[in-house]
Amino acid sequence: MDTENIKAALKTVKFPGFSRDIVSFGLVREVENTDGNVLIGVEITTGDSSVPETIAADIKQVVGALEGIHEVKVRMEISQPKQQPAAPGAGGEGKQQASATMQKVKYAIAIASGKGGVGKSTVTVNLACALQRLLEEAGKPGVGIMDCDIYGPSVPLMLGATGRPEIENDLILPVSNFGVSTMSMGFLVDDDTPVVWRGPMIMKTIQQFAQNVNWGELEILVIDLPPGTGDAQLSLVQTIPLDGAVIVTTPQPAAFNVARRGARMFDKVNVPLLGVVENMSYMETPDGQRQALFGEGGGQITADSLETPLLGQVPIDIALREGCDKGIPIVISEPDSPTTKAFLSVARQILDGLAKK
């Protein structure tokens, strides 16, 4: 039995909670076989004591079942995630200082909505590309996206980012496309694998995205939040010092009434609002007329209610939808389109708002 066969067997050992195996995660550091006596060396960073125990048991089971193997020993080197001490925040909540992996991130902003279906991830991806374009023109560091929509990660598809993140010095390297660095649950699970987790696992994952991903030097980290005000949102504001939040809504009351309630969460945790983006604002017909398919004024009503600016109105654009489905955002594919100009206008206002902080 050679080591290659043993490594092949180790590829069936999944990291607990993920569909990805320990070999592709880069956790297996050595494999030795001496006359059927096997030693497997594994290095892992986790604060959950059950994770290394589960991995060690699974290794012994799959390798021990191979022909010619008499004994399997697992040498496990465990490191604790690097965390900074919590500081008191608003409303009695603790907010972490920036982790070591985010020391070179200048600004972190959240993109949020009260409800699903408003195109928040579409706005996130195109806004990130718009910010990247403006920052590149100004000779400044780039942009990253942290996709915190754990249950329905769509950022990789919309950004055209594929492949598996690599591990370097015990840190995950984000996947990049169009100059935007991205980390998402979509990179860590198979396409058909559902994420069936309770709140504590969601919170741990978001903490790992902040503390165990090597984000490098970024001007802005754009964080795509899932809808609502649940575990993911609270975990984020407790883990990452946010410099602001952008609220995404559509014009109709069913969206903006919920968006206003969701935005109040940021007040409670002392995160300033940078403004509101109204998505699906109108559709322009071939003769130049605008049809308000979802009503009018929701974005402005939301902004006025929250005492924050309306940053822009993004039209209903077939090219916008097609670009996200193909993994080429409209900001990239059609740099001079009216929709792209709307995203660039929003991006400029966000940069101006951050510069005034």
Task: Outline the secondary-structure elements.
Blueprint: H1 3-10, E1 28-34, E2 37-45, H2 50-64, E3 71-79, E4 86-88, E5 94-96, E6 105-112, H3 120-137, E7 142-147, H4 155-159, E8 166-168, E9 171-173, E10 175-177, E11 180-184, H5 199-211, E12 218-224, H6 231-239, E13 244-249, H7 253-268, E14 273-279, E15 283-284, E16 290-291, H8 298-306, E17 310-314, H9 318-326, H10 330-333, H11 338-355
Parallel strand pairs: 2-3, 6-12, 6-13, 7-11, 7-12, 13-14, 14-17
Antiparallel strand pairs: 1-2, 4-5, 8-9, 10-11, 15-16
Helix pairs in contact: 3-11, 5-6, 7-8
Overall description:
The protein is of the alpha/beta class. The protein is built from eleven helices and 17 strands. It has helices at 3-10, 50-64, 120-137, 155-159, 199-211, 231-239, 253-268, 298-306, 318-326, 330-333, 338-355; strands at 28-34, 37-45, 71-79, 86-88, 94-96, 105-112, 142-147, 166-168, 171-173, 175-177, 180-184, 218-224, 244-249, 273-279, 283-284, 290-291, 310-314. The chain has an eight-stranded mixed sheet with strand order 10-11-7-12-6-13-14-17, sandwiched between helices. A three-stranded mixed sheet has the order 1-2-3, covered by helices on one side. Strands 4-5 form a two-stranded antiparallel ribbon. A hairpin with a 5-residue loop joins strand 4 and strand 5. Helix 7 packs parallel to helix 8. The N and C termini lie far apart (62 Å). The model is unreliable at 83-97 (pLDDT under 50).
